[in-house]
Amino acid sequence: MDLLRYGRSPWGETILTHVSWNLFWASLFAGILFFLAHATYMLLSAHHKRPEAETDRLEAANKDLPVKIERHGLTARLFHWVMAASMFVLLFTAFLPVVGVKFAWVQWHWIAGIVLTASIVFHIIHASFFLDFWSIWVGPKDIPEFKAEILRDFGHDVSGPKPGKYPLGNRLYHLAIVVTGIGVTATGLFMLKRIRTPFFLRDPYIMSDSSWGVTYVLHGLAGVGLVGLVIAHVYFAVRPEKWWITKAMILGWITRRQYLEHHEPSRWRVGRQA
Amino acid sequence: MAVIRDVLPVFELFQPTTIDDAVRLLDQHGADALVLAGGLDSMDWLKDRLKKPRAVVDLGQIKELRGVREANGGLEIGAMTPLTEVVKHPVVRDKFSLLMQAAELVASPQIRNQGTIGGNISQDTRCWYYRGGWTCYRAGGNICYADTPTAINREHAIFDADRCVAVNPSDTAPALMALDAQMVIRSARGERVVAAENYWIGPGIDITRMNVLQPNELLVAIRIPATMAGAQFYFEKVRDRQVWDFPLVNVAAAFKPSGSNIGEARLVVNAVAATPRRLRNVEAFVVGKPRNEETAAAAGQMAVQGAQTLKHNGYKVPLMRNLVKRAVRGSEGAAWTS
Which chain B positions have a beta carbon within 8 Å of A196's beta carbon? Predict the structure, then answer.
């Protein structure tokens, strides 16, 4: 199976041109396989939530917490859904032609790319200055939680730490999206020089053919990676036990019980009522 | 640039004698096969070794693909009919002289003897960067060498460029579109009929193809309905030299009068985009108006709205404007404006 495609430059050099679309099918297959495997596993696996009795006890002890706890502010939610819409437009315009649905996709694609880039820039500023920036990142501090989650997955009743604001899977997913998202938007911004837009004079000679080849390959790799990641994201968003998180991304809040059931209050502190 | 080697690459040659056999071969070999009609486009690719098909399906022995037949007041032209035969056919000359004019201006007499109508409308673009063998968008790469600040792009597109700026070089294609022709396409799965307007496809839809033909499909005939039979026709082609050259711009027009005004109109310009460009807005504008200088001038202006020129093809805008103006006015004596 070819992973990369090559062409010849006017100087007779062999240059990279694209990723092979075989990788798109591989990513699509991997995404579908993942959700099938995970869904099967979830039918058999242990539960992640706190035991009901423990949650009851915590709820009784935390009556001063608000009934509705804000998880995502309006700005963060708007960003998320704008980014989601642009991501779907980008993926459909990129890959529908590959699977045989032919249409004039380029203009839709670059416009959606601009929207995605703008929303990412906005998100970086918003998260840096108005949100708890470090709450979404993973690092050595999360190793105990990681161990506890793994053990819970294997059916052990572990008293280890619960997540802060974002579950570990959520944070790992965010990291993967950061890597692929920056890869796809950074290369995409350069690629705008290759097409007609109101922003730049079209000029493909700002880089050498081989540098462009690497740019296209990185864009393609990030793009096909996003296919699998988006499938996984949509899958988790619609899973019944994750629905409370999805609902929070729509409405902005979770209940006090959900907060106590799924989170470690010491790692995600919320304001208490007087 | 490509090195002309004059020695064909190795391929398996098939010379079927029926359409069914040809279609079966195309189905069997798919994208590995090259269809050879008159060979005037294909031989370039083969001699330059830019296309190395495993199989070549030569249609020259299929008699049912040749000839002009009258049908329902119109015509059915076999895809392998030589252009000279199309030009000489009495019904073409009598009722559809637009096609005769267009076909007569293709290349040279020798080429018209060898070249077929199916090949002429299905030929690949002449963009020299693409035909030079470089891996441009149209060749499956990621660049258009013709649309750069330093490119030589005198012959390239002023409309509908989508990464690729190559143009359709056919003379008969705009004439057939103006005559509301239909393309009969056969494959192992059966037959489909595609309106001329939908036969050619631009780079936005598929950057590696000029028309809707799939690798396993064969254009077998072109049907011209009676719709525009005997109408007032106009065809003009502007090229760098007066024989054996591709159009810089050409225009094909058909008008049906209604009293002293235009009752029905078809206007198509080619070599300005990757597909023949039907000027529907101009057609709608001229209907109900007389074919005079005023209507023609306005039509010419309207025709070039939205044109986007490259570094060296700005001349195509006044050229197209004047050709449309002359087509609507209906006289070669119409004044040119720059």
Answer: 161, 308
